[in-house]
Design brief:
A hairpin with a 2-residue loop joins strand 12 and strand 13. The protein contains 17 helices and 16 strands. The protein is elongated, with a radius of gyration of 38 Å. The longest helix has about 80 residues. The chain is of the alpha/beta class. The protein is about 55% helix and about 15% strand. Keywords: Coiled coil.
Length: about 700
């Protein structure tokens, strides 16, 4: 869908044309062609953990049986469901936290565990592409690197020195790099919100955004977060990104604009009140002082016979000073404009480079899809050819093969030519399935070609903007020629100042006082004129602009919900089915509202996740994330990585009936989606032993590493 920005702004302008101009409406709503950024179509990518390897040495302690033990631990994982069974406090959660550390740069390991581990290798795949994260924790400053390929030993590390994608020597820089990597791989971006500055001496409103660490909460489901469906206050933003519904980005950006305008409005109102109060106080003070000066000047006029009039010199001095300030201001304004234009040039070039990288990636995806389509077409054509062969003559003896012979041998399950048994050789192929896949690939190819075309067109537009702004910079350079040289004016000012000082030295004390009063009076009159004539800036029209943004957000939200109804309905149905498979038959419906709030119909009442019984929340939560993955697998919608890590799923509700239900569901997931997703489960429940084929069980009281 190509968003019609012109039609959108025209509709809103009709509502607000009495208060705002057309250009003002367009400026407020402009997001630099980002209205068509979102798409619910899946990238088709999945994240797979292949292996975790840990090297180190446990701390020395008199009271521990593991004191000083060497750590040389390696645990492989397979596609599908993997379960680690070990007692509580034996290291299951630490394995998952190592994965989190490697994939996000965020360390949540206990201090003693981190001290034990000197080196960690986490091998993972994105589709068929293999990567390795290497963490060196043996020194005060960490080293973290992402490498192409798969390795898990220090000896192999040197062989992969040329395969480094990026590396970092601090957690902060690694977090930024790994964030950018996964954002690019799964086409995520940072949905924003506003918050007060954390600095005590500042009252500013700043923007904050969801990072890859935030989105990772949709992968790692920790037992401590079991009472909330989506992690933290920004859970809905994670949900929106995982769905990828159209218009999500512009709704988010316009909401940020509205928040900032509300903040500026409140700040201006506060400033205006203070300004009015201060102006009133100054007005009274200046008027009183002006009255006193006039009285004193009258007294000097009476007693003074001789005078030296310095007023014209002061007037000339102030005029010259004003001219210098004016020319300096012009120069600064031109330079500021030039800097802003240069910043715009840099921004445009960055967008062009980002688009070009995305075009390159999409072309590779297009080539892959075309090859897959051609392979399927060839397979279908060959299958139809051989299924239509009809044997008329024996190639050995050239005798006729009659229909009676063929039918007779068909009933006997024998070949019409060699007379050998054909039992067990039937391999029915449903050609329609492959034709459907070919049609789906055609759609994918069309979408990829369209997206490549759109990005190319965007780059052309960016180039035009680049050229236009560059021309503006050249023009602004020429404007410096029209600015008067202030150095000569400064020389004149110094000469005039010498004359004034010379004349002041000639007057008698009373005349000197008079000149001081005249000068002060001139300043006071100027200040009074400024107060009485200056209009307090109230033209920002914040309320109207905020109302405009409210209307725009409402229209876009309605349109997003309308366009995403199909996706949300499918997700709701998937959630209901999974919840029923978990044994929660009391929930008859799942409803996802326009604001992405999820309601569960239970006993004919709609309740939120927080109001579901505590013993049922974990099952509803797993059903939610599993449904997001199924939405991608079955309907090609959404952006979930198809990886789930579930820590202690039986911690809150480990009754026998629940565990039996959980075992059945896990087996069902394994059989349905084992080759399309990966779920890593850590549990202390030994009743789950033997449920899954990919199982690693540790003996009672045995440590995982």
């Amino acid at each position: 869908m190509n968003f019609d920005f012109k039609k959108f702004t025209d509709e809103l302008y009709e509502e607000y044309k009495e208060q705002l101009t057309k250009s003002e409406v367009e400026e407020i709503l402009n997001l630099n062609d980002e209205y068509s950024r979102d798409t619910p179509m899946s990238t088709g990518k999945r994240l797979l953990i292949d292996k975790v390897t840990l090297l180190g040495e446990k701390g020395i302690s008199e009271n521990s049986d593991y004191s000083g033990a060497k750590i040389n631990f390696s645990l492989p994982f397979e596609s599908g469901l993997n379960i680690i069974i070990a007692d509580n406090l034996k290291g299951k959660s630490s394995i998952f936290k190592i994965i989190k550390y490697a994939l996000t740069g965020t360390n949540s390991l206990k201090d003693n565990i981190k001290k034990w581990i000197n080196h960690a290798f986490v091998n993972f795949s994105i589709n068929e592409k293999k990567y390795t994260v290497f963490l060196d924790l043996s020194k005060y400053r960490i080293y973290a690197g992402l490498f192409n390929g798969s390795f898990n030993s220090l000896d192999e590390l040197e062989n992969y020195s040329d395969e480094v994608v990026f590396d970092a020597s601090s957690e902060t820089s690694y977090q930024d790099l790994i964030n950018d990597f996964f954002f690019q791989q799964f086409t995520y971006y940072s949905l924003k919100w506003t918050q007060k500055s954390s600095q005590k001496d500042k009252d500013d409103l700043i923007e904050a955004g969801a990072s890859w660490k935030t989105y990772f909460k949709s992968i790692l489901l920790e037992s401590k977060d079991s009472t909330s469906l989506m992690y933290g206050d920004q859970g809905k933003k994670v949900f929106q990104m995982l769905l990828g519904l159209k218009l999500t980005y512009p709704i988010n950006r316009l909401t940020i604009k509205k928040d900032l305008l509300n903040y500026e409005k409140a700040k201006e109102q506060s400033f205006t009140e203070r300004q009015k109060k201060q102006e009133k106080q100054n007005l009274e003070k200046f008027q009183q002082r002006l009255t006193d000066i006039n009285i004193e000047l009258n007294e000097i006029q009476i007693i003074s016979k001789e005078k030296v009039n310095l007023a014209p010199l002061y007037i000339e001095y102030n005029s010259l000073l004003g001219l210098i300030q004016s020319e300096n201001k012009k120069s600064i304004e031109i330079e500021n404009v030039k800097q802003l234009k240069n910043k715009e040039l840099h921004s445009i070039k960055t967008k062009q480079q980002t688009n070009q990288s995305e075009i390159f990636r999409l072309k590779k995806e297009l080539e892959k899809a075309k090859k897959q389509s051609n392979d399927l077409k060839e397979f279908v054509d060959i299958g139809i050819l051989f299924s239509n062969l009809d044997i008329k003559y024996c190639p050995g003896c050239n005798h006729d093969v009659s229909e009676i012979q063929k039918q007779s041998r068909l009933h006997e399950h024998k070949c019409s030519l060699c007379n050998e048994s054909t039992i067990g050789n039937e391999d029915d192929v449903d050609i329609d399935v492959f034709k459907d896949k070919i049609e789906n690939l055609k759609i994918t190819i069309k979408n990829l070609e369209s997206e490549i075309c759109t990005l190319s067109e965007q780059n052309d537009i960016f180039q035009e903007k680049f050229n236009s702004i560059y021309s503006d910079i050249v023009s602004s350079e020429k404007m410096f020629d029209g600015i008067q040289d202030v150095s000569s004016l400064s020389d004149e000012l110094q000469e005039l100042e010498k004359i004034i000082n010379s004349e002041k030295s000639k007057v008698n004390p009373s005349d000197s006082r008079k000149e001081e009063l005249v000068s002060e009076k001139a300043v006071l009159n100027f200040q009074l004129q400024e107060i009485t004539s200056q209009e307090i800036i109230r033209g920002s029209n914040y309320a109207t602009k905020i109302n405009l943004l409210d209307s725009a957000i409402e229209k876009l939200s309605e349109r997003r919900f309308e366009l995403g109804t199909k996706v949300l309905d499918r997700l709701s149905e998937l959630m209901k089915n999974e919840i029923h498979d978990f044994g929660l038959t009391s929930i008859s419906e799942v409803l996802i509202k326009e604001n992405f709030e999820i309601y569960y119909k239970q006993d004919n009442e709609y309740v939120t996740f927080e109001n579901i019984a505590e013993g049922e929340q974990l099952r509803a939560k797993i059903a939610f994330y599993l449904s997001l993955i199924q939405l991608d697998i079955e309907f090609n919608f959404g952006r979930h990585t198809r990886l789930l890590i579930i820590d202690s799923p039986g911690k809150e509700e480990a009754d026998l009936k629940y565990l039996e239900g959980l075992a059945r569901v896990l087996q069902s997931i394994e059989s349905r989606y084992g080759d399309k997703l990966q779920i890593l489960i850590g549990t202390a429940e030994r009743k789950l032993s033997g449920v899954l084929k990919n199982q690693k069980e540790f003996a009672v009281d045995e440590y995982v590493f």
